[in-house]
Design brief:
Number of helices: 7
Number of strands: 6
Largest sheet: 6 strands, parallel
Radius of gyration: 18 Å
Strand content: 15-25%
Distance between the termini: 43 Å
Length: about 190
């Protein structure tokens, strides 16, 4: 924690404007995460967080809302089965519930924090995208859903650019049409 705080202080001194907490694991499970988050904000840096959403707890929502400019939940599937197959954990319902709790607190506090979800689309979770959208479309406080190609694919974008993905994106757009949630998509191309 001491080393992290020194790095944050040094980055501020070097002119950094913002920090995103992310990584090859869940940043919120660090024992001093909330202390580090507050320290970062107190030092005048904007803060973002990429999380899997499983460690969000109601008792700490104020800390997230007060210290973050944005939070994005990486979600592995649109239902419990696909989520478990991709993530290897049965946390789907917990994550959806945690997003709902955080979004409700955001509205209650009239906060400007941006809350988003991102799903890397693959053959396992593609056909659950509409299920996810049905689950989140009425959660007030979610700003966006981002769907992106699985960058670990070696098919050179064929799946992402194929008709199955296009059909599911179209279904998703229809479901979200009356919602306040913005749909963001990515492209996939090989540059040579």
């Amino acid at each position: 924690t001491k080393t992290i705080k020194k790095c944050i202080y040094d980055m501020k001194e070097l002119g950094a404007k913002a920090i995103c907490f992310t990584g090859g694991g869940e940043p919120m499970i660090h024992k001093d995460f909330y202390q580090i988050l507050s320290f970062t904000k107190e030092n005048g840096l904007d803060c973002g967080l990429i999380t899997n959403g499983s460690a969000i707890i109601e008792e700490r929502c104020d800390d997230l809302i007060n210290n973050l400019n944005w939070l994005r939940v990486s979600i592995s599937g649109g239902d419990a089965t696909s989520y478990n197959k991709v993530q290897g954990k049965d946390h789907f319902e917990r994550v959806i519930n945690n997003i709902s709790i955080l979004a409700k607190e955001k509205i209650k506090k009239n906060s400007n924090i941006k809350i988003g979800l991102r799903m890397l689309v693959n053959e396992i979770n593609l056909y659950t995208l509409s299920k996810l959208v049905e689950r989140i479309k009425n959660i007030d406080g979610i700003n966006y859903l981002q769907i992106s190609p699985n960058q670990f694919s070696n098919d050179e974008g064929k799946f992402w650019n194929g008709p199955e993905v296009a059909n599911e994106i179209k279904k998703t757009e229809e479901i979200l049409k009356l919602s306040k949630i913005e749909l963001l998509t990515s492209s996939f191309e090989i540059l040579s």
